[in-house]
Model the fold of this input.
Amino acid sequence: MSGAHHYNPDDPPVLEVEDLSVDIKVPAGTLHAVNKVSFSVRPGETLSLVGESGCGKSITSLAIMRLLPKAARLSASKIIFDGQDLAALSEKQMARLRGNRIGMIFQDPMTSLNPVYRIGDQLEEIYLRHKGGGRREARERAEYLLEKIGIINPTQRLTQFPHQLSGGLRQRMMIAMMLMCDPKLIIADEPTTALDVTVQVQILQLLRSLQEEFRMALILITHNLGVVARMADHVAVMYAGQVVEKGSSADVFRHPTHPYTRGLLECIPHPGQSATRNKLGSIPGIVPSLVGRIDGCTFRNRCNYAFGDCATAQVGLRDVEDGHSYRCLLPPETFAAGKLEKA
Amino acid sequence: MQSEEDKYPQAQQVDGKPLALDIQHLTQVFHIGKTWLNEGKPLRAVDDVSLQVRNGEVLAIVGESGCGKTTLSRLMLGLQKPESGAIYVNGQALVDVDRKAFARRVQPVFQDPYSSLNPRRTIGEIIMDPLLIHDIGTLEEQRQRVEETMAKVGLPHRMINSYPSQMSGGQRQRVAIARALVMKPEVLICDEPTSALDVSVQAQILNLLQELRNELNLTYIFISHDLSVVEYMADYVAVMYLGRFVEVGPARDVLERPKHPYTQALLGSVLTPDPELGLPDIDLGRGFPDPLNPPPGCRFHPRCPKAMAVCSQKEPEKLTVDGTEVECHLYAKEDADIPV
Ligand SMILES: Nc1ncnc2c1ncn2[C@@H]1O[C@H](COP(=O)(O)OP(=O)(O)O)[C@@H](O)[C@H]1O
Ligand SMILES: Nc1ncnc2c1ncn2[C@@H]1O[C@H](COP(=O)(O)OP(=O)(O)O)[C@@H](O)[C@H]1O
Ligand code: SF4
Ligand code: SF4
Ligand SMILES: [Mg+2]
Ligand SMILES: [Mg+2]
Done:
């Protein structure tokens, strides 16, 4: 079973983001956390933002939700959700969208679940806040949803407190909470990172089936390339606040082109590879500081192909093939397997 | 009274050499909610676990969170005294070696390189501390050993006066490895050593551990929940479920021909970065195991897609199937015949 295509490429996007940047004031100066990021996602489509810690994935999602820390400044030429310009909404209007039309799931469900209230009360509260209606109606919807997402004994579960649930069950509750309203877009930030592998698969399956049924768009943020390959229709690989490669997941995984994307894939042990026979590829060095201006390519201090111009030139996105682009000065042929000696 | 060592003697080695690590029937029970009046409820975090590791080999322990991996590693490090069972390191019983001497031979590398290093000490001091505690060598020799060890793990000399807060996660994990190696241990117990790191840094650390193993003939106990990492590192694999080893064998056999349904589910859940494949179908029940109330019979039966009638009634015995030890009724001929 292949993951792709539960969406119609001709549908208008649910969310369209263009040139989104976030600067954060820090004691040492200005931290450029996100730098001119653009993407869009359609009904039923899954877009993954993938990259290592600190590359700007969470700040990007918080910027969309307008939940940035106080010291952060957002700029964008477009953040259009369902025909509305999010940047132009008042805080009150934004609050009405959050949790209602845009659902969020985080790595740690406890950041969204209140430890002192019963699960059922929290689910009902969401419904009452956004949908109005009576408590009875809210309770019925909660029970229906829990049943639907495969929770055994929903009535009893609703009376429990968050700490009485396992990690996987809490994440299911988060999903139920999101479904109490009818979101068009889900933003899931590392939703399965803290879970055991078997539970991870179950939660991803659940997200996938709900997404198909309700035609929700999903922005799936993760550092796990396996999760991306199996879930995403489209991928944006982020590094140091920029998108360095993007395209359909089939194209990006079949023809990874940016040296960072290629490096990441070589770092993961693949089936049959063993340390006694075969060393893992690794990316030397660490991510540069994002404080202050970075001239040239942000990846150059770790890149095996770096040459003189990489330190100074403006590096824009260029096409590998239609709909698949990467941010590098060298042409795609450079990276065709075994074609060129590394510099 | 009969000692644990009399009850549980070490395994015989075929080639006559002692095993690097030999663990016999270890059990650790926590008493939850214990007060001076109340015995508490027993939680068998490690339940009759045995393992044998030869010199220079890597044994990986895999299993979901809460199955007892860290508790087992603390027992192997001598940080906790087991309820019962015996531990031998290169032929010597742990009880016969004093705590300090034991620590020289078995050293830990923990998961979180952020919390496991003292933020107020320099890298040089952190790596030298074990030598001071164990009073090994003159100051000059200690300095030299710290410098050699730093070089070995790829830490530049200029970092000797840096503090952990000035270092990246990968560098901190190198410090943790250096601190363990400076004692010239025989066994390194690595508890999720790369799970807090990014994959590019994980690769650097795995390559380093592999180089060190070849160079120093180290033995590793490698605890991880990531099966692709385990496949890469391990010679032997032990799969743990609710305190027990349910499958133990050569890495290739366990990972390529898993026998226990739980091992099969774990392997089925590995998501390789292959966009042709969608999500796997794993046929597991959702019941989450409660270690305070382990199910009767086979502990895995509420989630097992292959459970039979006998599975909820009788604990499966350890059987050897094609060189792999497995605890599952499917492999016991007479049990498998009972219809569901
Ligand atoms: N509240 C904050 N104050 C200052 N810097 C921050 C804050 N939150 C995030 N950052 C910085 O912004 C960058 C991007 O962070 P983040 O989006 O959280 O990364 P990711 O989610 O990809 O791991 C990092 O350099 C991080 O240190
Ligand atoms: N000091 C302790 N007191 C009580 N229970 C504990 C203690 N340490 C661990 N446990 C319990 O023992 C079981 C095994 O825990 P642990 O060894 O940390 O598992 P793992 O490392 O595989 O995640 C868990 O149920 C845990 O809650
Ligand atoms: S622009 Fe230069 S440094 Fe950047 S990825 Fe391309 S070759 Fe490497
Ligand atoms: S003993 Fe039964 S329940 Fe347990 S793993 Fe084997 S088949 Fe499944
Ligand atoms: Mg994040
Ligand atoms: Mg642990």
Q: What stands out?
A: The interface with chain A takes residues 64-65, 168, 170, 198-204, 206-207, 210, 225-229, 231-233, 265-266, 268-280, 282, 284, 286-288 of chain B (CB under 8 Å). The CA atoms of residues 175 and 220 of chain B lie 18 Å apart. Chain B is about 30% helix and 20% strand. The mean pLDDT of chain B is 90.
